[in-house]
Amino acid sequence: MTTVSKPAPNKTQLFRERVWEQLRKVAWPDSRNHWDFSSFIPDFEGSDLCADRVRALPAYQQSSLLFITPDNSTEALRWRAIEDGKRFLMSTCGIVRGIVLLDPHLVPAEDRRYAATLDGIERFAQPVSLDDIRRGPQIGLLVTGGSAVNLQGVRFGKGHGYFDIEWALLSEIGAVSVESEVVDVVHDCQIVDEILEPEDHDVIVDWIITPTMTHRVPGVERPLGRVRWELLEGSPKLKSPVFAELRNLSLNGIRTLTD
Amino acid sequence: MVSAQAERRRPDPHSAPWSERRIRATSDWVPRNPDPPPLYRQVCQHLEALALGQPFDDVSALPPEVRLCARLGVSRGTLRRATDELAREGLLRIEPGRGTFVDKATQLRWCGWERLAEVARPDSRFDLDISRFVPDFSGREECDRLVIDLDAFKRAEVVFVAPDNSLLSIRETTLGHGKRMIVPTCWLRRGLICLDGATVPSQSHPLAASLDGMERFGRQLDLADLRALGRIDLVLTGAVAVTHEGVHIDPGTGMFALEWALMAQLGLVDQNTPVIASVHSCQVVDAVVTPTANDAVVDLIATPTGIHECTGPPKSTEVRFGALRHGLVDTVSYLRELVADGGLPPQPVRRAKS
């Protein structure tokens, strides 16, 4: 008899898989990725209730510009934001094509729901450079989805770390500050009890919003992020135009944290 | 009421999406190049270029090993490793004692991708990774106009439209004309969806025509629903490439051929059902390919420059098991149902070679 030794599965991957099993019961498949939760973050029953809870936050009401991740679970919020006339930035899937801006005033009323979907946003959003974002208003509220989160605000995405990179990019160009608030929109079944030790590039969230509750994470002091070039070395993520642009901004004497 | 100003601001649904206007960073800085690939990978690249550069009508073998080794300055072992790799990927076919041949369908597919990359528009999920989807392309608006003008389109009441990005706006038009439309979900994972242009509210047509929206407005059809459709009047598809004769080259999944076979098996389509491929002119290739079970056949090709009538091989109307990639019977519920009904023979078991 032979023993096959398998590498010990990553602990966070186990959380993800346990949560995905529960999530499957309340989630919807993606138009392209079907039920492959490692490739996308699904929409779920009650995401519209989450959207209304986000809209009730003072930070939502006071921000003239939001950042929303390209997750299916945040589609309902994108729809409401368009209805509310709130402009928002969204990264493209995998940040491959950088960041886009959706200006609700450019969306005809009958197309608002369509414009909130990832397919629809292709038609209605404008690409923006980091320089455009840098010159624009501060982002008061950032909304992301995720695979799992604990009540201390430590979250897990699909495992690619996109949100951490987005926070780092926006920090580097001064588009977010320590005053900016971060919301994680999840289903109740995505909340895990474990005390998770955050790594130093993990973005801790201020708010956890589910269809049934709005949870303020106590005592969050989130530092600004930095692009960790050493972690990106050789990564296909570097093909995104944002990294070249960030380097150029800093080479051209525009102050970024990378300097 | 929509104000005149809002009307002006409304993006033209037929205009290129923003994604075509990509940010081009002025590159003082580029990511550091990784180390050069190992030797056999470099040989792979040479062989690939050699194979793809062959005329489409050339069915002769590649130069013999000795000459290739000399030309590339590598050992026979390295050359073989590269040849084996490309054979695994389907580009080369090694026939012992005869030589190494280029697989024409794969050559057409890979060349199709190369040409398509120049004109493709990105997908919301897969960007320009066009091996994973059939992209929209610049000039597609003209194809749409030509297809909509055809009698076959005007007369059709039930239209099958493949879930290709190049067909997004024609799906919207089909709904706009009040037709019933059958659209497969990607890789048939959630079956076929029926959308009725007469009942979907017209302001929702753009969303209902998109892959993200169609399942919110359409009904998923089971086998009985499909049979009850009676017939499908017109079939529209995109392609990676299509030959002058009408052999349809897809991304290598065999999905369109399978969908066609399924509809034929249920009596929804037959030899006389018109099949139209809507493609960029660069995707039409002059090559003679014998369609395998994975290749469907089309009657008409719509390109931005005109409609081309194909003379090609007859359309097959039976489910051929060659089309069923390993595991598809398990993931496509219709096939499971068909096998359970006795409408299809059970999947043949591959016998181990003795």
Q: Any descriptors?
A:
heterodimer, A: alpha/beta, Rossmann fold, 10 helices, 11 strands, 15% strand, disordered N terminus, B: 354 residues, alpha/beta, Arc Repressor Mutant, subunit A, 2 domains, 3-stranded mixed sheet, 14 helices, 34% helix, globular
Number of strands of chain B: 15
- The termini of chain B sit apart by 76 Å
Strands of the widest sheet of chain A, in order across it, are 4-3-2-1-5-8-10-11
- Unreliable spans of chain A are 1-7
On the 0 to 100 scale, the average pLDDT of chain B is 85
How would you describe this structure to a colleague?
The complex is a heterodimer of chains A (259) and B (354). Chain A has helices at residues 11-23, 47-55, 58-62, 75-83, 112-116, 118-124, 130-135, 162-172, 229-232, 241-251, and strands spanning 65-68, 87-91, 99-102, 126-128, 141-144, 148-150, 155-156, 181-185, 191-192, 207-209, 214-216. Chain A is α/β, with parallel strands linked by helices and 259 residues long. In chain A, helix 2 crosses helix 4. Chain A is globular. In chain B, the strands form four sheets. Chain B has an eight-stranded mixed beta sheet. A three-stranded mixed beta sheet of chain B has the order 11-10-13, covered by helices on one side. Chain B has a two-stranded antiparallel ribbon with strand order 1-2. The N and C termini of chain B lie far apart (76 Å). In chain B, a hairpin with a 7-residue loop joins strand 6 (180-184) and strand 7. Chain B has helices at residues 4-9, 39-52, 65-72, 76-88, 104-119, 140-149, 151-155, 168-176, 205-209, 214-217, 223-228, 255-265, 328-331, 333-341, and strands at 92-95, 99-102, 120-121, 136-137, 158-161, 180-184, 192-196, 219-221, 234-237, 241-243, 248-249, 275-278, 284-285, 300-303, 306-309. At the A-B interface, helix 6 and helix 10 of A face loops of B.
